[in-house]
Amino acid sequence: MRSTNLSELKFHQIVENKFQIYNSLFMSLPYEKMQNIGSLIPFLYDESQKGLPEGKSPNEIINNFFEKYTDLKTEQEQIDLMFRMIQYIERQVVLFDSIEDAAFPSLHSENEKGSLESIYHIAQAQGKMEQVKTRIEDFVTRVVFTAHPTQFYPTNVQQIIQDLRDAIQQDSVSKIDLLLQQLGKTPFINEEKPTPYDEAVSIIYYLRNVYYQTIGRLYNEINQLFFTESQPLKSPVIQLGFWPGGDRDGNPFVTAEITWKVASLLRTSILKNYYNHLKIVQRRLTFKHVTEPLKALSNLIYENMFNENGTITIDEIKTRLQTIRTILIEQHNGVFLDILDDFITRVDIFGLHFASLDIRQDSRVHQKVINQIVEKYTGINLKDLSEAEQIELLTNPSFTAKPEDFEDDIVVDTIKNVYQLKTIQQRNGELGVNRYIISNSETIFDVLNVYALFKFCGYKDDEIKFDIMPLFETIRGLDGAENTMNKLYNLPIYAQHLERRKQRQSIMLGFSDGTKDGGYIKANWEIYRTKEILSNVSDKNQIEVIFFDGRGGPPARGGGKTHEFYASQGKTIANHEIQITIQGQTITSNYGTMPQAKYNFEQLYTAGIISDVFSTSTSQISPDERTLIDKLATISYQKYEDLKAHPSFLPYLENMSTLNYYGKTNIGSRPSKRGGDKKLEFDDLRAIPFVGSWSQLKQNVPGYFGVGTAINELKKQGHLEDVKDLFKNSSFFKTLIQNSMMSMEKTYFPLTSYMKDDPEYGEFWNILHDEFELSKALCLEISGYTELMQDEPLNKSSVQMREKIVLPLLTIQQFALNKIHHESEFKSVYEQIVMRSLFGNINASRNSA
């Protein structure tokens, strides 16, 4: 048996087999109207698995299924059965998630590639221990959690999942049986759309119950491996960021009031963790002159937990702890010092902020607000001024803006929010909120407008303790980024701001909208090149640039093998920190348990060490390789542009996919497109429903479209061997293609093959299908693989099992979409079926949007 099969065998034994055993418990659950559902679903799977590749439509398959396996006579009865099947499959997905999560420690070893232990041994073997230690002291990874609408489990379901994981690890059949019964009777959907505050609560659950412990233990492990008691690690290795309640881009429900509530909740939550942690400390530190100050500190924290006017500061907590530490060492021989130091470490890491709340808004909204403020107080139209005059007015205003002077809600709320940010910093510490991100940045004024907002609201220059961060996400924005940043660096007022920010400039790059805008290879290569260019221009201006990557779950939005992307970055890209967004079901699938969170935090963190200390020739891209990637990017971009220009592109998404149903589900607070109810325009499409809709169709177009055409064109030019060498010798390109393979592994065109003869969309479907087949064939050819995801047996096994579970669900969804198009009298009910089927499909995929 080849070695790669060992992990497949292990997966089969501890995941697939357990799923089959525990899944059988579902079939005997005593629920009204749920009898026989478990025995009917395999029949629908068989009908789908055999019929779809033969070209049968979902309508034929569902109708055959009802005729052969049920005696249901009316359409209403059939609809009822489909709803129950959806509910059943949703719970099968949860069961599989729980089993796979419970098996995680058994499937991953402590010393596998990318672990801290492996880094330690490599550093010892290569004599690079001091380099690694220096790098650790300077390097930080920031993981920023967002609440984009791809996370569907309500909090009570998440808690059941956690208990189910524990029961599965214990192999407690009786507990599992009871929890499955609870799961069967617990609603999976929100009765109402969650508010941004609800979304914050959902993610803070993980901060409190998973990340507080995980990051603390990771920090301790680094200390034990690389440092000594006398010279411990002082800097935080992992920082947490937070978007729910701060990200108002396209979300009118995020108001100044919500931002304040979320910031307060983060403060309260970390104080709760400190209070509970102190109880553990107090159980051991029962010594004279120690118990009293510990109790006083505990009481102080408790008093400040729910007190809006609480004045506790992080410095006060640290001072008290250091006093206690000194007493423990001098009077009690340092007994249980490690327990106290562990708590002190958490305080150092999490402060009073727990996670840093980022503020984000679209540049066009800022421009609208700035225009109204300037016109209100000066009567000037900014468009009438020269660039120099605009800069002077924005950075040195002669007025102070007040919210009560305006009627426009967005202007009022923007001003209110800027005013309160100073207070949040005073309560939570500067890290509580100190980054202001500008979406769709393209010019210097997108950054200066935010600087102006602070000035308009009365901030003195040295009171603007914020990193003002442009987000370059469109191809045009990426193309102009060098010029934008160079002009900013050389603007005296902004240069002075950067001096106060320790000569550091944070820049966000958006993979989601980049891929939507420019296609897969073009977007990833453009971002890579933009990072190189911005690293160079920043270095020339003696600025330390920090890149913050807005990545989604799937490869089409910058996800996939994320840590390998960072490990593959060459010396031409500034690597001071790794900053990345994590969102939706990726939070639960990659960071939902302590073992998972530790593994993924660790892999992400060590990627930055590997690329710096252990950089290899495969992470450097040669001039010839650049020329090759440039050609691939250009050809694939043109292919993608042609697709976007096809007259059926948007109509296909609107009429043949689930695009219009994302906004109707009660899963997230944000609308699914910008611009309200106006006609759908490509630029208004949000990346999540865009990518997610392709995923629901099992076509995953943004993850590979243009790849096959680009490679094929170079093949025709006699450069196929060069592309093969590129895959072999360039870590960046190899990771890019492997991620695309993951997208293709999750693609299943037989589901929609009935569309190929559609008079309106048949031609368009065939364009997609042909490019998929070409991309798959050529990716296999250049890699030398015989199958997709060949070198990722664990992930491949998981993908295949999940696709198998949801195939009946996908068939039902397509059947319902067809019924809607043919104006069934039950149209509204079929729309409900489509919306309900979104949940299971996306949760099963785990990184579909």
From TrEMBL:
GO terms for biological process: carbon fixation; tricarboxylic acid cycle. GO terms for cellular component: cytosol. Coiled coil: none annotated. GO terms for molecular function: phosphoenolpyruvate carboxylase activity. Keywords: Lyase, Pyruvate. The keyword Lyase applies. InterPro entries: PEP_COase, Pyrv/PenolPyrv_kinase-like_dom. The keyword Lipoprotein does not apply. Forms oxaloacetate, a four-carbon dicarboxylic acid source for the tricarboxylic acid cycle. PANTHER family: PHOSPHOENOLPYRUVATE CARBOXYLASE. This is Phosphoenolpyruvate carboxylase. It comes from Empedobacter falsenii. The gene is ppc.
